[in-house]
Amino acid sequence: MEAALNLISVDYDRMQQIQLFLVDHTTAIKVTRVVLDILGAGLVCAGLFSAAQPVFSLVISGIALVVVIEVAFFALRFLGFLNISEGDRPFVEGTYEKSRLYYKEGMPVLEIEADTHYDAGYAHGYLAGEGLVSMLIRLQLIVRFTPFGKRLDEIFSKNFSKLLKQIPKDYRDEIEGVVAGVNAKKNESWFARMLPDLTEPNIIALHYLSTLDDLKDAAPAAACSVILTPEEVGRNLDWPSMGVLGNASLMKYQKIGDGPGLCEMTIAGCCGSLTAVNEHGVFAAMNVTSQTTVKSPPTEEKRIGQVFFNRHLLEHARSAEEVRALCMNQDGFQPDAPYHLSVADRTDQFSCHFYQEDGTLETPHTIRSVRDDKPVVTLNATYSGDSESSGMYYHEQRKKNIARGLKKGASLTELLSQPYVNNELTIHSVVYQIQEGELHIALPSHSFSAKNPRVKFKTNIWA
């Protein structure tokens, strides 16, 4: 801990220190919950079975204690203040045709091999079915009983028909397969069969939780940090877990037909790409931006959702240079809204900042490249040319801590673990060793995941 503290320029504020303390003492909190629940049940029994007559004050006290403890525990988990233990992982190991789900050092891994996008989606949904059903039940409770959830449902319902048009047919087929696979798995259980079937809008909503413009003010903050160097890339994904997305996270290998294999750190049910490497060693990771206006919007038929655009790039490029060309090609697909995409391979590393350039329709995006071994850091500002606006979600604190760490020669693993860079929204933390073609992924959590043990994965298992 001392080595890490020496890197700090800006330390956690008091609230984040409390949150981190709770995450670090999750086991003690769970034990306390069980003890107090037993105590509450004991008070109820003592009140009901008193030798003389029931003592209702004891019964009421016992019930109140259990209710308060369970509500408090639910709130802590919903807010991401509890770490995820191995027993919390909702996925079950299994196989389906040529695909399988298994665990490696505590990390759930989904390997998919299929001939069509629909078949790939079906295998995804079937194998991850238990986790997806659990995740979506919790999300439905959030939608039904929280102001944010109701607002999310309202905004998504209003935008659904537009979003549907921005999903290419292959990925739409894959989503349909996920839905069918989950429902097939669910209906194998007599209890789960009583739950309503998963629907296509349920899955599509996952792809837009942190990217719809209308949600920027309604949703909990989203952030993300990416550090590009010639040798490696460090990346923290900061999305509000809501006590759900952390333990719905998994590592996914996927190969469809003759297409390129993809290796991704993702969320069950996601058919786009958040953090991914293709079999040619091209890495891509996205960040949200404070920019909300598309200064030079593409035509309607060329718009594609951000996570689907990321995947489209990785499936059609054999190098970072080819990704760069596709990003700047106004005659092909373009993303539907502003964001940042950091890309790296062995010879080229850059961040593309979509729709943040003050230029013309022909050059609507800014590119910042690694030059002379100087790292490129992408957070959540708006980048236009050489200028940088004020950013979102502790942008300045993250920027200062990364700058100080780089100056002191810290490793990317150390940088990603620094205060504010690793925060209560950090559910994934990834270091990509470019030359070796390896991902070092921290075990996912609802928050502060960059401090967790890391698991090493080869990115090209198809070689």
Structure description:
- This protein has 463 residues and is an alpha+beta fold.
- The protein has three domains: 2-82; 87-99 and 115-215, Penicillin Amidohydrolase, domain 1, CATH 1.10.439; 221-458, Penicillin V Acylase, Chain A (4-Layer Sandwich).
- The protein is built from 14 helices and 20 strands.
- It has helices spanning 2-5, 14-24, 26-48, 56-78, 117-127, 129-145, 147-165, 169-186, 200-206, 215-218, 306-316, 320-328, 395-407, 412-416; strands spanning 94-96, 99-104, 107-114, 225-228, 232-238, 249-256, 262-267, 275-278, 283-287, 303-304, 334-335, 340-344, 349-353, 366-369, 376-378, 383-384, 387-388, 426-433, 438-442, 454-458.
- Strand 18 (426-433) and strand 19 form a beta hairpin.
List its salient traits.
single chain, 463 residues, alpha+beta, Penicillin Amidohydrolase, domain 1, Penicillin V Acylase, Chain A, ten-stranded mixed sheet, six-stranded antiparallel sheet, 14 helices
Helix fraction by DSSP (H/I, runs of at least 4): 25-40%
Overall outline:
globular
| CATH top level class name of the largest domain | Alpha Beta
Main beta sheet strand tally, sense and closure: 10 strands, mixed
Intertermini distance: 39 Å
**Per CATH, which architecture of the largest domain?**
4-Layer Sandwich
Rg is: 23 Å
From the 3D structure, determine the CATH topology of the largest domain: Penicillin V Acylase, Chain A
Average pLDDT score: 85
